[in-house]
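ARCHIVE CARD
SHELF: 3
SLOT: left
DATA:
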Amino acid sequence: MPRLICALAAAILPAIPLATPLAVAAAPAGGEVRATLSSVTPWESDTPGHGGYSGIEVTADGRRFFALSDHGTLASGALDREGARLTGVGRTGLWPMADTAGAPVSMRLRDAEGLALASDGSLYVSFERDPRIWRYARPGARPTALPRHPDFAGFNANGALEALAITPDGTLLTMPEDPVAGRFPVYRFADKRWSQPFAIPARGAFKAVEADIGPDGRLYLLERRLAGPFGFATRVRRFTLGETALSGEQTLVETRPGTHGNLEGLSVWRDPDGRTRLTMIADNNFLAIQRSQIVEYVLP
């Protein structure tokens, strides 16, 4: 995170929000599936601790959400909609995250990045510094630490576990932000043990920042690229999950730098009209020149 904040000093101009570019379509790679921008909704609040949101999970009805801050807090909120289209955001709760001893998580260890909502309502959180995953039975609860894969200790301090997803049967998938030898190794936690069954090819300078399992059972990966003074570019790819391999790679969203802010969180769900929505949240890095916002794309 410190490395990213320093880089943001060169990105002041694109961080100032422009008019909401509704009905803009992401440029697909190679004629692949096209996702269309549905809404860009600011999320503003004067409450201390608001900001730094790096993860989001939307409930199945699209009306409620949890948001994770990399400053060690977890928020809940309501999503106002006209039909399926997002029109407003409001917070309904804010909790400091506890460590495994029940105390507030320390500044050194609070770099929470990935969020996954299990079918039983529990929340899994991945941390970038001191790479690890904790399970919270409910917001504000004392977490349980999962065992760590030996590889986690070798990840870059500011390029470790950001992406985190959970399947309907409770299997966890995670990967480092930084690629390893041109790939993002995917780590799977099932039956109380880790494996590393496959990897995602890194393409260009994009880094992996979040993942989710969609209602179609496929793995969705949110990636970002910092393009200096031009701001951030965003990409979303999806893959068909197999036991030992991924297949069917498709690029759903790929934006020009500066189109959106620092999108770090992703939740994939199906609206009442049967369309798949990609709900993403931007991390304002607690900088006045950036805003927290929720961005939604819709698939045909």
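SLOT: right
DATA:
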Amino acid sequence: MREEIEEKYGEMIASKNKIRERLFEKVLLREGVDRGQAFKLVMLTMDYFDNKYLSEMIDNNDLDETYFQSFLDERNSFFDMIRYGIQK
């Protein structure tokens, strides 16, 4: 199924990533943060959660709204850690 999705939507995904990259160029970063590395970290996190969701969809075709909300909450908590930092 993963191959089918990549074959069918590969160009759309690549286009979406280019849009994300352009949007990320507008994000203000702390001094000394490498923009390319920061974007790569965001994309790694996004890819992880995309793969996690896809894998769970394959394993369980009946994902309900409660699961989806929990998934989004977890994903957003990771993005909050990236955005605001984890060190005190």
